Amino acid sequence: MTVxxxxxxxxxxxxxxxxxxxxxxxxxxxxxxxxxSAAPSTExxxxxxxxxxGDGAAESAAGERTAGSPAEAGAAGSVGQARGVxxxxxxxxxxxxxxxxxxxxxxxxxxxxxxxxxxxRPGESPDGFDFDEAVREVEALxxxxxxxxxxxxxxxxxxxxxxxxxVAALFGALSLGFGSARQPGPxxxxxxxxxxxxxxxxxxxxxxxxxxxxxxxxxxxxxxLAGLATMVVFVAVIEVVGFEIPAVLLCFVxxxxxxxxxxxxxxxxxxxxxxxxxxxxxxALAVPIxxxx
Amino acid sequence: MDLxxxxxxxxxxxxxxxxxxxxxxxxxxxxxGVLPGLGPAATIxxxxxxxxxxxxxxxIIMLAGIxxxxxxxxxxxxxxxxLPGEASSVVTVFDGHALARQGKAxxxxxxxxxxxxxxxxxxIIALSLLAPVVASFALDFGPPEYTALALLGILLVSTVSxxxxxxxxxxxxxGLLLATVGRDGFTSAERFTFxxxxxxxxxxxxxxAMGLFGLGEIxxxxxxxxxxxQAPATVANVWPSKKDLRESSGAIGRGSVLGFFLGILPxxxxxxxxxxxYAMEKRRAKDPSRFGKGAIEGVAAPESANNAAATSSFxxxxxxxxxxxATMAVIFGALLIQGVSPGPQLVSEEPELFWGVVNSMYxxxxxxxxxxxxxxxLFVRILRVRATVLAPITVLITLVxxxxxxxxxxxxxxxxVFGALGYLMKKLGFDPxxxxxxxxxxxxLEESLRRSLLIFDGDATGFxxxxxxxxxxxxxxxxxxxxxxxxxxKRRAKDKELV
Lengths: 293, 499
Description:
The complex is a heterodimer.
Chain A: H1 2-9, H2 11-18, H3 22-27, H4 31-34, H5 39-49, H6 56-63, H7 70-82, H8 85-102, H9 109-119, H10 131-142, H11 152-176, H12 188-206, H13 221-241, H14 244-258, H15 263-284
Helix pairs in contact in A: 2-10, 5-8, 6-8, 7-8, 11-12, 13-14, 14-15
Chain B: H1 4-13, H2 16-34, H3 40-46, H4 48-51, H5 56-81, H6 90-101, H7 105-138, H8 143-160, H9 165-180, E1 182-183, E2 190-191, H10 205-223, H11 242-264, H12 269-284, H13 297-312, H14 314-320, H15 326-337, H16 345-349, H17 351-382, H18 387-406, H19 409-427, H20 432-455, H21 462-465, H22 467-498
Antiparallel strand pairs in B: 1-2
Helix pairs in contact in B: 1-17, 2-5, 2-17, 3-5, 3-10, 3-15, 5-6, 5-7, 5-13, 5-15, 5-17, 6-7, 6-13, 7-11, 7-13, 7-14, 7-17, 8-9, 8-20, 8-22, 9-20, 10-18, 10-19, 10-20, 11-12, 11-13, 12-13, 15-20, 18-19
């Protein structure tokens, strides 16, 4: 637990490091779609722009400007050229970006290429925006108290469960009959999906050592089981005794035992909540939910 | 372009009921944005039963308000407490909280509010121009095109949105399988019902979404303790100075445009665009080292981008009928429940609904701007309501709410089952988003596939020879194959190094 937390504590600073190269990924793939003249050289030039970031004058030419028209970008481009090669490169990348801005990117073609590139395996170039890493940091920041990752056993069990589900669905689909391509039967589509599921499950099984995003079940997982139990009790008895008593019990267990609130607070809040529910759902909205009173 | 339906849309917005629900949506959105734990997808899922009693336009206006309201709400806690209420506000923590520690929390919040407003508004205008064009282009789409489009949408959402690609695809396949439960539309054969009469009509979307997003998240949060919240310093002087505005204006402009485009992409959305906008600003900056130490652009860009993306992610939903992310999948479900099937015909056949929802976003963004700043103090006070008290209330709302949909106890059983599944999925690293998305697209996908096969007389090459579906499938193969190719190239590069 401690180790995990230590690792994530630095999320903020690590984040700043990896996000550096995003621009190159951002602009690169869309330039052809936008038809910008600066496109061919851009991919490389952005990569190098990082190296010239010390060049104060050149940087200010490109950096200070606000978003505007491509004409503006072009004008800035000429300023850049006057200041030297480094600035030219930088402006080329900016112009490419404006190409993206004004170009009508059809949501199918141009659009779909980009996430593919962004989501693809990181770390090719030292400058590449490590998207997976950034997402992981976002998640780490969200769950600062996340339990440690699960071991190999848990990963294998998960993958096997997926394969079993796929194979079971496969047999189910076969028994439905898949007809022919000309006359598709009810089992054709489930058959295709279950084959895909089984194959993906096998792939997950083969890579079980590399999965690190599952969490270990800890002693606090019992809290979840207890929470589920209160819901099962609720649904089991609701048709017999109405919703009020199981609702009070559910609320009380969640407050007192799962939330560690005080006794008084738990009892009073549970009663107040259920009275509120009664007033809203039964008295005001007349929902036909089974009720005692 | 005929402007009459656009103007009629304003008439829809200014009906008192719709304005009221717009306000409710935006306020609820900001609230859940402030509270860590439940995200917009979960909140919208839990509120689905509420939408049954109201008009479709009104319902979607409210749900949309929740979605973009949440983008701003998350900012408040990011800045004041270093506690992002939403995933899309995580990057705001870096500079927003640094500014707060320098006593400039008000400036950060003010710039974020203005950025959100501009980003949202720019995005609505662009949406109004772009959406009818996309819709008219897509009007000619037949079953083969829809097959390819739905497949591509599911693949993109699974591979782009979050961590483990393989697991996301597995979740999507499970969603597709769940969609086949019930009577087959073509042959009336019962599939995977196991003789259960309640399953004969298929699984309902509401318990699945409420269980996976709502209960699943609550159960998951039971285990993980959120950091104790300390009362933040008082927020003074929320109006940013002219200098701050000048410094952030470029970032707001760039963030808005970037957010708009990333929001359209399936799997893009608010989180990705805020990350990308932050990275872009840092990359452009004269002195990147200022970032993380209170650079105002580091707040302005991601906040503009996430609101722009929240708005533009309505484009694929309203024009193609393909939701671009998990929240849109839930809104898609809400529309289907209301008897509205989103698609290219929506703009022309239900202009009141389309323009009513789109134009309500102008109002929502104005509300965000004028309410957010005076209400900051209230939102901070709400943070003192403990998660332990909110959790059982939310559980009860879910259990009772799902019952009210069909007045059927079986739905409560289903929501608990999917709640448990949602918890297990989160625990084991599976994102429930692709499952829900694949579930809502599942029947459309199967239907178009089988119709296409009938059209092609069993010849599957027809998918490839039609230009649009062929292109879409080519992109599909490209996206699917890219990670493998990259991995291979990487391995080869490594081998070379070894030699």
